[in-house]
Design goal:
The complex is a heterodimer of chains A (455) and B (165). Chain A has 455 residues and is of the alpha/beta class. Chain A is 54% helix and 10% strand. A six-stranded parallel β-sheet of chain A has the order 1-10-7-4-2-3, sandwiched between helices. A four-stranded mixed β-sheet of chain A has the order 8-5-6-9, sandwiched between helices. The longest helix of chain A has 22 residues. In chain B, 52% of the residues are buried. Classes of the chains: A alpha/beta (455), B alpha/beta (165). Chains A and B meet through helix 2, helix 8, helix 10, helix 11 and helix 12 of A and helix 4, strand 8, strand 9 and strand 10 of B.
Chain lengths: 455, 165
């Protein structure tokens, strides 16, 4: 599924995105809709700040004792009848999942939305092993037909408009063209219902994993997550280790915060709590449940200065309000996770050498921090990564020289005045040489600098 | 909060989530209500494993045994949460929770004494020994994956009707 990381080309990606009017219209519409819905959903809730404090404290507690809670979850889930696997990295996770499926001769796989499976590039691996993997979340289904990665962690096809979806369905599913979202949804329902009933296995992610009971918790709206986890005889859940919460009784705080932050709903249509496979004499659940816990560098992050990003509960609110994300869309970031939380995870999980331009994809305005339901300190985290980028020698040499020059000039009033006069003098030249790029984007220096206007 | 207030709050929140809601005087009123809600030609799945289900099962002569073939599922559910307007469906007692998922219309019968005021109340009641599957159902299946425009009935029911007795 993932077409290879392009984070190093963030600038080119962004320039292309900025020139794509369809994408920009879709992003503007999304930004407006999300902003209103989120505000409306939180308005009637009393003590929102207290609730955020509580959720933040629960996540802090998890990080303070992560190995303990992960062990406890694994033990509880095993007691409940699940088979728990630990994957050190993405390659190990792919091998484990492919192994489970191959051993049972599973060929037809239905899949619920899982960003961790995107991170692990699971689909491509299973397909190369001859399995049919069908994404069943409507947004994921759309981008799978298009052969694209998701551009938003909650609404994967947010970059597409209804006409593009209509054409895509007409082309791939042999149905007459329609651009009515309700009709398009019906078409997908019909096509995917057959897949659910015929599937050998279902693969899902999980929003949370309760350490005390070994339960997996899934928040969904469409019902595909419920199908994937209850209809096929085999269920494989893949999740990253930090999804664990201490207790099932911690869940209400997250039910109150996650859907409101993500889509502006007081609760998703479905919240499923799955504890082990189908029990003897039972009629719900897969006969066999496997849980794959992916580390993929998180234990390393936990020990470092960026550990607080592991508090994130993946609501996507930070990207919805980010002026950079809203302008350039999710694909520009070039990896699985976009927006403020995404650029931090991209740098940490894939390494600075593969991703350093994305740590600059923030204005540091702090809108992300303001909406984060679990108080992830996103701005300090981004600043920390920028310092690391400079320290590790990934800063642009021209930018470094410019900044060094500026810091010297800014420390001396005489040099600063000289610089201002020179800027005024050279502006016509720069404008001539730089053409539209300079003239259109950089305002001309003021005739009389502000410093001299000040008393 | 007393029982009547709890039921009223639950029904108001469920209605906001686009569920159809009916407050009946008691189980005796179910037959008449179901006759109005379930079309006579519907293929009905009714598990018949609780007293209420057994009482109403005979209303549907063309019952199907496989919920995957049903157009309507009529069942009694485990409980509800007033705070969110959610039904609580449980696999406890050999129940198929997905029977309320596959058909296009889910008709849920809820005894009014089984409404929790808050999510905390529900989870503290079930946290010590959760069933294999506990699902909170709030309104019908929905998506906003195309232009963030709400569409109802993706993979789950297009209609959710709740009868409180």
């Amino acid at each position: 599924m993932s077409a290879g990381q392009t984070s190093l080309r963030f600038r080119e990606n962004a320039v292309r995105a900025l020139g794509d009017e369809t994408l920009r219209a879709a992003m503007r519409h999304a930004a407006d809709t999300f902003g209103t819905k989120r505000a409306d959903a939180f308005a009637p809730l009393p003590d929102v700040e207290e609730l955020r404090d509580r959720a933040s404290a629960i996540r802090e507690e998890v990080l303070a004792n992560l190995p303990v809670y992960v062990e406890r979850f694994a033990a509880s889930a095993t007691r409940a009848g699940a088979t728990v696997h630990r994957a050190k990295d993405a390659a190990a996770a792919r091998e484990i999942v492919a192994g489970i499926l191959a051993e049972r001769g599973a060929k037809r796989i239905v899949k619920g939305k899982s960003m961790v499976s995107e991170e692990a590039e699971l689909n491509a691996h299973l397909e190369s092993a001859g399995m049919e993997v069908v994404e069943t979340d409507l947004g994921e289904y759309i981008i799978q037909l298009e052969g694209e990665p998701p551009s938003h962690i909650i609404v994967p096809a947010i970059h597409k408009n209804r006409r593009q979806v209509g054409s895509l369905f007409a082309k791939h599913l042999g149905v007459p063209y329609t651009e009515d979202p309700q009709e398009l949804t019906k078409i997908a329902r019909k096509a995917l219902r057959e897949k659910f009933l015929a599937a050998d296995a279902g693969i899902s992610g999980a929003n949370f994993a309760a350490a005390d009971t070994g339960s997996l918790v899934l928040f969904t709206n469409e019902g595909n997550g419920r199908m994937v986890t209850t209809v096929p005889p085999l269920h494989v859940a893949i999740l990253s280790i930090e999804k664990v919460i201490p207790s099932l009784s911690d869940l209400p705080a997250f039910i109150r915060l996650l859907p409101r932050s993500a889509t502006g709903q007081p609760i998703t249509s479905y919240v499923s709590v799955i504890t082990g496979p189908r029990r003897p004499g039972g009629a719900t659940g897969a006969q066999e449940l496997h849980v794959v816990l992916l580390d993929n560098g998180r234990t390393g992050i936990l020990a470092g200065e960026s550990r607080d990003i592991l508090k994130c509960i993946r609501c996507g609110a930070c990207m919805n309000v980010c002026p950079v994300y809203r302008a350039v869309g999710g694909h520009s970031y070039g990896w699985t996770y976009p927006g403020p939380m995404g650029l931090i995870l991209t740098a940490l999980l894939t390494g600075m050498e593969k991703s350093h331009p994305v740590v600059d994809a923030s204005t540091l305005c702090g809108a992300c921090e303001e909406v984060c339901p679990v108080r992830v300190p996103l701005v300090p985290l981004i600043l920390g990564l920028r310092r690391r980028k400079v320290r590790e020698g990934f800063a642009d040499p021209a930018e470094r020289r410019g900044m060094a020059l500026f810091s010297r000039a800014a420390a001396s009033p005489a040099l600063f005045s000289l610089g201002q006069r020179l800027a005024g003098l050279f502006w016509p030249v720069a404008r001539l040489l730089g053409g539209k790029d300079v003239a259109g984007r950089i305002p001309p220096p003021a005739k009389r600098p502000f410093r001299r206007k000040a008393p | 909060m007393n029982g009547a207030d709890l039921a009223a709050r639950f029904l108001a929140n469920a209605a906001t989530a686009a569920a159809g809601t009916h407050l009946l005087p008691g189980p005796d009123a179910l037959a008449e209500a179901l006759a109005r809600i379930v079309p006579p030609d519907a293929k009905v799945y009714c598990p018949g494993s609780t007293a209420i289900e057994r009482a109403v099962a005979d209303l549907f002569p063309d019952r199907v045994v496989d919920y995957a073939e049903a157009t309507v599922t009529v069942e009694e559910v485990f409980g509800a949460v007033a705070e969110t307007g959610s039904l609580v469906c449980s696999s406890e007692g050999g129940r198929a929770v997905q029977a309320g998922l596959l058909p296009s219309h889910h008709v849920a019968i809820l005894r009014r004494g089984k409404i929790f005021a808050t999510l905390d109340g529900l989870f503290s009641a079930v946290a010590s020994a959760p069933p294999a599957n506990l699902t909170l159902v709030t309104g019908p299946s929905r998506t906003a994956d195309i232009e963030l425009t709400l569409a109802i009935g993706v993979h789950g029911p297009e209609r959710l009707t709740i009868l409180v007795v």
